[in-house]
Amino acid sequence: MQYYIVIKDNMSQFLPFASLEAAKEYWNYLQTCEIKPYDYIGPTEEQKLSARQTFGKELLNEYLLDNDKIANDRGYPFSVQETGQQATKFQLVLGILPLGSLLQTLAVIEATPTDTIFTQERKDKYIAKLNQFLSTQ
Hints:
- This protein is mainly α.
- It has helices at 20-32, 45-74, 80-89, 91-96, 102-111, 120-135; strands at 2-8, 11-17.
- It folds into two domains: 2-32, no CATH class; 45-135, no CATH class.
- It contains six helices and two strands.
- It has a two-stranded antiparallel ribbon.
- A hairpin with a 2-residue loop joins strand 1 (2-8) and strand 2.
- The longest helix is centred in the middle third of the chain and has 30 residues, at 45-74.
- It is elongated and about 70 Å long.
- The mean pLDDT is 85.
């Protein structure tokens, strides 16, 4: 792969092409492109909500799969007491996460104490994922 400089008006880019002919084909393609102004207004509120809901459902599924992995690694399912403790601990999170209420979810997770099932490592992972997603919104 060889890099070539493609120059158009006041702009230039170094791009990799298999050959000079491929670079020329790209140049010819650029000549046929129409360029016009575009005012990007960003995603609609509905699209933002949908993205938050989708992320929330995915994070919830990851949480449940992590629980399954811990139970499988132990070689037995959680006891009734452990299941009750986890359900009580995450009742609010499990209710609001699929709704897309991610800031509230983050606050609850940050305030939730760790234990043998909801370890600090898991807590940190979920907080990082939430913060990363929220930083893109």
